[in-house]
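Field: sequence (string)
Field: structure_tokens (string)

Example rows 1 and 2, in order.
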Amino acid sequence: MSKKNKHKEQEAGKKLDTQHEEMDAGTVMDDKKVEEQAAATDNQPETQGEAPTTDPLAEAQAQIEELKDRYLRTVAEFENFKRRTQKEKAELIFNGSEKTVSAILPILDDMERAAANANKTDDIHALEEGWELIFKKLLKTLEGLGVKKIETQDKPFDVDFHEAVAMVPNVEDNKKGKVIDCVQTGYTLNEKVIRHAKVAVGQ
């Protein structure tokens, strides 16, 4: 082989070695880039797919505002209820008085007529009957309103219904501790004593 050909072969071999070295260097550089990119990816914060964090202070403030709103609503409702109850109570008292007066007015009319006729007749018996009828009508009307007379005759003395204004000594044994006489009639309204009967009691 001539020197010229040997020289060409040597030159070609050097080129091949240079190309292999460049390829190896490029491969190393590519591997480094891949590793750097992977490391950068690992170091990046994982923000995707995670729920955003909430501020505890903001949550507490929101709860306070909600509770405050509920409290104000409750207070307003209670005030409305109180005003409504007071109004209903006042109306009940007013209507109760109206009912009582309306029931008694017819009896007042009877009394006016009886008083007017008293000067026109000399029949005392007729006048007595007229006044007795008016009195019974009044008692019946009061009973319709819940008013009842407290019975006292021969009843055992009861402090819940009677008020002793006198003591009668030397009575029979079966009358001791019992009502002997009623000085003033007592009444109940819907089973509640509104006036005790004033009585004399045997002892």
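Row 2 begins here:
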Amino acid sequence: MRTVTDDRKFKFTDTRLEAWRPTEGEVYLHDTERPNLLLRISPKGAKTFYFCRTDRSGKTAKQRVGPLGEWTVEQARARVDVLNGQTVEAGGAVPKRDRPSTHTLGDAFADYITFREGEGGRSVYQQRRMYALYLERFAHVLMDEIDEVWVERNIKHAVARGDGLDERRKALRRSGGTYTANNVLVLFRAVYARYLKVNKLKGKRANPCVDVPLYPTSRREECMSPEEIKRFLAAIDTFKREHCVFKHTRPGRGMFKGQPIESRIALADVLFCCVTLGQRRGAVAGMRWTDLRLNGDDPTWRIPPIKGNKSRKWKTIHLPPKAVELLRERRQRSGDGEYVFPGARGTAKVKDPRKVYHKILVIAGIDNPHLTIHDLRAAFVTLGVVKGKTTEAIAAAVGHDSPDTTTEHYVRLSKAQKRSVTHEISAAMFEEEAA
């Protein structure tokens, strides 16, 4: 902790401060009349008043008041009194609503994520991960000090550049990080909105993220071709044979270090259901035995609302024979547990299949680092379109409320498929003309 010598701690006067000359580097002077008032003297002699305070975590934060010359000592003290929650003129406390908040970004996010967990949100894990990667380094910043310029500089542009990330993570980002920057901006906007609501500041203070525009983005075109889907399904079987069988070596080595074999099998089965049912990862991972009807002529799966279901309505999915066969095998393996895909080490359900997913992509020979697990849903929809199914039928199969959602976000035809459609339609025209 920095000690303050007696010659740097005295009663401020304009004359004494103007006469002070720095002798070594940067110097901070402390006012005995207002312990929170500092004067910073830069190595070049610039003198600026600062308000110093300590947040809940014990970290010291400084807030700029103004330069000496433009601000007198009395004006600086009056400003510090206001920032400190007291006014000398009135001789009493400022109303609580006018006091500066001591909430930091870390405090605001902790409250927000607790609220989201209680609400049963779908993306709590992803939001925690985004915060850890891009926002946690600003956890000490006071919410009152965040403005539009700060958001644009430290969140929008910094995340797009990949500040704080290693080279491997930077290489995996799409479109130079603009997609990620937009997602972090949306998260921060929600955190700030929650902070305004909890502290009853809504309508009194603007959300600084509202006027920060998102980066323009293009429609996602990444999608597995029908041939790649077949290779992906075959690679799942290969993965189970090669990485989910106990050998005479220490289990759980390499990229699956510490991961039980049963957990790897469950994660591979989650991916199988994602691609064969066209459902989201979160919905499949949260599949319960009580929601399945595997007997009878029409096996079904009812997806409950909230978790893994954006529309918050029950959805009925008709199960194909291959999926029914896999689920019946899992019933024999998993016993009487609640979840179809139980997690490792006593957790209720599997957590994150991305390591297994990327390993299966390597086995399948699919060299596209930008393909995500959610793109399996798009592959299911696109294959249905290629096979001539209507968008209404596909929307019902995947659980979309509107066929427009299916068409706008999930149909991703390749250049070869688009060219084939054009040629076939043109050929049909000439055939009719010849007839």
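free_text_note (row 2): The beta strands are 9-10, 27-31, 37-41, 47-54, 60-67, 86-87, 92-93, 292-293, 300-303, 315-318.
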